[in-house]
């Protein structure tokens, strides 16, 4: 992929972390949201961890995890070449290209080694094919609807890639939380931490974040909820 970091006419550079992180993303098309920021904060990393970011998009979660902790490597897997290009250029732009690698491909058949990851993180499409209007923008449509990948596919890939006691970290609509938890257990990923996200103190949760441990024992810790952190993509 091209190492040129000048944004295309259809892109812009946004800054985060008080100017310490720069992110190339689309000006008007699909853009990351607060969901990705919340998930990167929820994920607990340890020095030396290898992180796989499924559906990395522009790479913002991998970038944030590299900035916040001493992880050894982040590998972003992205099926859409336009977004994979942004992720690759973001790694170069932020001086992280030696620690952040981007793979263009389908997470269902990317040739990675079994048990290669300490953490698998994913901000997946929230809507099933039959739920709501599908965007005419193909990049946005694939990111928001299960057109190329399902929750089942994500959990299967996570289970395969994780070491024993590795952690899968996901964010998902609260309305589909039962699907997420039952799916995790189907692939021997035991939910260990749960945090709900509410638009306001009087509103029901719209999103939930789950950390599930490969081969873990049953014991779930429910964290204090997050309330009012901006606009969500749901």
Structure notes:
- With 234 residues, the protein is α/β, with parallel strands linked by helices.
- The protein has a single domain (29-227), classed as Vaccinia Virus protein VP39 (Rossmann fold), CATH 3.40.50.150.
- It has six helices and eleven strands.
- The strands form two sheets. Strands 3, 4, 5, 6, 7, 8, 9, 10 and 11 form a nine-stranded mixed beta sheet that branches.
- Strand 3, helix 2 and strand 4 (73-78) form a beta-alpha-beta unit.
- Helix 1 packs parallel to helix 2 (60-68).
- The two termini are 32 Å apart.
List keywords for this structure.
single chain; 234 residues; alpha/beta; Rossmann fold; 9-stranded mixed sheet; two-stranded antiparallel ribbon; 6 helices; 11 strands
What's this entry about, in short?
By secondary structure, the protein is α/β, with parallel strands linked by helices. Helix content is 25%, strand content 29%. It has a single domain (29-227), classed as 3-Layer(aba) Sandwich (Rossmann fold), CATH 3.40.50.
Approximately how much helix is present in the residues?
Answer: 25-40%
Instruction: Compute the separation of the termini in Å.
Output: 32 Å
Helix/strand-derived class?
alpha/beta
The fraction of residues in strands falls at: 25-35%
Secondary structure tally, helices? 6
Mean pLDDT: 91
Name of the CATH superfamily: Vaccinia Virus protein VP39
**CATH topology value:** Rossmann fold
Which term fits the overall shape? Answer: globular
Main β-sheet: number of strands, strand sense, barrel status? 9 strands, mixed
Low-confidence stretches: none
Number of domains: 1
CATH top level label: Alpha Beta
Second-tier CATH architecture: 3-Layer(aba) Sandwich
- SS elements, strand count: 11
Give helix and strand order, one letter per element, not per position: EEHEHEHEEHHEHEEEE
């Amino acid at each position: 992929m091209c190492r040129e970091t000048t944004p295309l006419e259809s892109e812009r550079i946004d800054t985060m972390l008080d100017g310490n992180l720069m992110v190339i993303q689309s000006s008007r098309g699909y853009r990351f949201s607060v969901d990705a920021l919340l998930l990167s904060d929820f994920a607990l990393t340890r020095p030396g961890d290898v992180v796989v970011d499924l559906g990395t998009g522009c790479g913002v979660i991998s970038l944030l995890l590299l900035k916040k902790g001493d992880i050894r490597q982040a590998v972003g897997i992205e099926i859409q070449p336009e977004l994979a290009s942004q992720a690759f250029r973001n790694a170069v732009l932020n001086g992280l290209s030696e620690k952040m690698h981007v793979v263009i491909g389908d997470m269902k058949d990317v040739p990675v080694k079994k048990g290669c990851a300490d953490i698998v993180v994913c901000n997946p499409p929230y809507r099933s094919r039959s739920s709501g209007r599908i965007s005419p923008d193909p990049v946005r449509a694939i990111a928001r609807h299960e057109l190329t990948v399902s929750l089942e596919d994500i959990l299967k890939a996570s289970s395969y890639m994780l070491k024993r006691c590795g952690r899968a970290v996901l964010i998902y609509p609260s309305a589909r939380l039962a699907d997420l938890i039952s799916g995790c257990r189907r692939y021997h990923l035991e939910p260990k931490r749960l945090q709900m996200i509410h638009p306001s103190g009087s509103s029901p949760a719209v999103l939930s974040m789950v950390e599930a441990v490969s081969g873990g024992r049953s014991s779930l810790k429910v964290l204090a909820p997050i309330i009012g952190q901006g606009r969500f993509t749901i």
